[in-house]
């Protein structure tokens, strides 16, 4: 008879937690060495500071026009007085671009987080139970995926203007409605990704062992499978934030997203695009560049995280 003692369950759990902590530390160490991650954090950090501090750091009031414009009348081209120029009613574009980060960064990341939460729950149920549950939910998800994201968002947000139900559950806030809609649009995409990941885990030894111990399905999904699929979920979250930013800005450009007096970048492009035929490019160019830099920054972070987790 062997004298070697079998490790107790608590000891195994402690060892597993220690391994995960070590793995997180190593990944963070690798992330900090990646130039793309550093650049992405710097870009996103800059816009986050603008969103948090708002008009406390803008050179001019972003909501009011100015008397005595250097060019005589609005819109003024970029100059030493107004680096990004002014819009057609004399408001400083640099101030509005800095302030415009606030609403976008309040709406898009929250929508992305909600879509990942709902998509993870839905995807785990689909991947773990399979059979009839998976077939029914998969058909619903595929139906949503077949629809163009922006077109569906445009349709729902247009109807929401006259919807008492949406107005009630959003407490009358347009931003909350946009969060609901964008989260709904991306939930099926996240669910499909999580489902495919769970399918690769559900028949592995540690899951089979948990079933043989008599653990409930909820315990297995949340305590066994979920910790082992956090990597693709984190990557999916960072990717969804980038897509959410672009989607919210696009809906604002189409007139159904964020509304005046918000200096949102998409709304600023919509307001300034009629000036392009007159070669007045600056009211559109600088908000568009702001959207591009923020999305690029988020994607740099997402690519770096994906590269580190897939090592």
Describe the protein's architecture and organization.
The protein is mostly helical and 311 residues long. The protein has a single domain, classed as MetI-like fold (Orthogonal Bundle). 69% of the residues lie in helices and 0% in strands. The protein has twelve helices and no strands.
What is the C-level CATH assignment? Mainly Alpha
Please work out how many helical segments DSSP would assign: 12
User: Which outline best applies?
Assistant: elongated
Q: Please describe the biggest sheet, giving its number of strands, its sense, and whether it closes into a barrel.
A: none
Protein topology:
Layout: H1 9-32, H2 35-53, H3 93-129, H4 131-145, H5 149-160, H6 164-169, H7 174-199, H8 205-212, H9 217-225, H10 230-253, H11 265-272, H12 282-309
Helix pairs in contact: 2-3, 2-12, 3-4, 3-7, 3-10, 4-7, 5-7, 7-10, 8-9, 10-11, 10-12, 11-12
Keywords:
single chain, mainly alpha, MetI-like fold, 311 residues, disordered N terminus
Summarize the structure.
The protein is 69% helix and 0% strand. The protein has a single domain (24-309), classed as MetI-like fold.
């Amino acid at each position: 008879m062997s004298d070697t003692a079998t490790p107790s369950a608590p000891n195994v759990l402690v060892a597993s937690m220690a391994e995960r902590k070590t793995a997180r530390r190593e990944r963070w160490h690798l992330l900090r060495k990646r130039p793309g991650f550093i650049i992405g954090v710097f870009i996103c950090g800059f816009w986050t500071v603008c969103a948090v501090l708002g008009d406390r750091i803008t050179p001019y009031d972003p909501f009011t026009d100015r008397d005595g414009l250097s060019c005589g009348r609005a819109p003024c081209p970029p100059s030493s007085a107004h680096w990004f120029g002014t819009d057609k009613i004399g408001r400083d574009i640099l101030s509005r671009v800095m302030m415009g980060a606030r609403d976008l960064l309040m709406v898009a990341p929250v929508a992305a987080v909600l879509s990942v939460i709902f998509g993870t729950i839905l995807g785990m149920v689909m991947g773990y139970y399979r059979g009839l549950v998976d077939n029914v939910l998969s058909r619903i998800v595929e139906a949503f995926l077949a629809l163009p994201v922006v077109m569906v968002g445009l349709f729902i947000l247009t109807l929401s203007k006259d919807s008492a139900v949406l107005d009630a559950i959003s407490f009358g806030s347009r931003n909350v409605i946009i969060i609901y809609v964008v989260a709904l649009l991306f939930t099926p995409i996240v669910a499909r990704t999580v489902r495919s990941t769970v399918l690769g885990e559900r028949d592995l030894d540690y899951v089979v062992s948990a079933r043989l111990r008599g653990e409930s399905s909820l315990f297995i999904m949340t305590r066994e499978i979920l910790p082992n699929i956090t990597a693709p979920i984190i990557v999916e979250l960072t990717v969804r934030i980038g897509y959410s930013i672009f989607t919210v800005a696009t809906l604002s450009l189409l007139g159904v997203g964020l509304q005046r007096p918000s200096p949102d970048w998409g709304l600023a492009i919509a307001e300034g695009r009629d000036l392009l035929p007159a070669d007045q490019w600056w009211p559109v160019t600088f908000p568009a560049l702001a959207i591009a830099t923020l999305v690029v920054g988020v994607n740099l972070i997402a690519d770096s995280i994906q590269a580190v987790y897939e090592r």
